[in-house]
Amino acid sequence: QVRLVESGGGLVQGGGSLRLSCAASGSIFSITTMGWYRQAPGKQRELVGIMASDGSTNYANSVKGRFTLSRDNAKDTVYLQMNSLKPEDTAVYYCYVWSGTSAYWGQGTQVTVSS
Fold it and tell me: CB burial class (10 A; 0-12, 13-18, 19+) of residue 74?
């Protein structure tokens, strides 16, 4: 019943920008935290950034100053604006939701950054 619909991934040149979106729907009655993780081939899944209901954020050091989270609580949607992209940002990006009792994950959207 729970769906996290991700969009905005694709191929971009180094230095370019992408904007990811994740909309939550279904049987999620309370969303405490929304954000993004990523996983590159052969690597562990890692935090990109998360935002709590009060607007507080936590970003990975590798993306601070380049990536920005925003959130539309009325639409249960979180966005990730990614600027100054680097080839090392290439990964599958997964939307994440924490309801206070359960965690939910999107299916992932591919982001590829060329040199």
Answer: exposed
Helix (H, G, I), strand (E, B) or coil at 65: coil
Distance between CA atoms of 22 and 54, rounded to whole angstroms? 18
Determine the longest span between alpha carbons in the chain, in angstroms.
Answer: 42
Q: How many CB atoms lie within 10 A of CB 57?
A: 15
Cα–Cα distance, 100 to 41 (Å, whole number): 30
Give the tens place of pLDDT for each residue, 9-53: 999 999 999 999 999 988 766 778 999 999 999 999 999 999 998
Report residue 2's pLDDT band, with 50, 70 and 90 as the boundaries.
confident
* Residues present in the chain in total: 115
As given in the structure block, the two tokens for residue 39 are 């996983």
